[in-house]
């Protein structure tokens, strides 16, 4: 029903081809993954992506406060900085998803009537953040273009989020982008709040 075709063509495809098509943000590949597979890695993928994001932020924080003393007595304070970055990244992602849910519930309340609809959309959003895994090679192959790479990764994740919303709720292209825009506004509001509190974000 969700594929709007007699048969889901991806049933015959190799998982690698399905993954490549998902990376290319093809709607049919997203439909196949969300509706016709039993993937149950949403939570683990979310935690891993948040750890990658926290590590990038923590690394940038370390670069800004470089200490050459070999007897560094504040090593544990630096470790707590990593945990703080993980918490901030988690709050930002939560506010981003919350902004999306509020917008979609306000614009199309008939689409999100049941709890199962919310859960399916949450799973789709969590799976569509897989692009944050690209942060790992961005850190490993550190070079002068790292900020540009991080911006491209952010854009890729937003495009994936848009496709996930579109496929899950069977919407046109405009409404998912509107929801993502509102989610970004809420996320940036949280960032501004942390900055006013004097935290390095």
UniProtKB/TrEMBL annotation:
GO annotation terms (biological process): intracellular sterol transport; regulation of plasma membrane sterol distribution; sphingolipid metabolic process; sterol metabolic process
Pfam family, one: Arv1
Swiss-Prot/TrEMBL keywords: Endoplasmic reticulum, Lipid metabolism, Lipid transport, Membrane, Transmembrane, Transmembrane helix, Transport
InterPro entries, A to Z: Arv1
Membrane-crossing segments per the record: 85-106, 118-141, 148-168, 174-194
Keyword Iron part of the UniProt annotation: no
Cellular component GO terms held in the UniProt record: cortical endoplasmic reticulum; endoplasmic reticulum membrane; Golgi apparatus
Protein topology in the membrane: Multi-pass membrane protein
UniProt keyword Lipid metabolism present: yes
Location of the protein in the cell: Endoplasmic reticulum membrane
Principal location class: endoplasmic reticulum
Function noted in UniProt: Mediator of sterol homeostasis involved in sterol uptake, trafficking and distribution into membranes.
Family: Belongs to the ARV1 family.
PANTHER family recorded: ARV1, PROTEIN ARV1
Protein name: Protein ARV
Gene designation per UniProt: Arv1
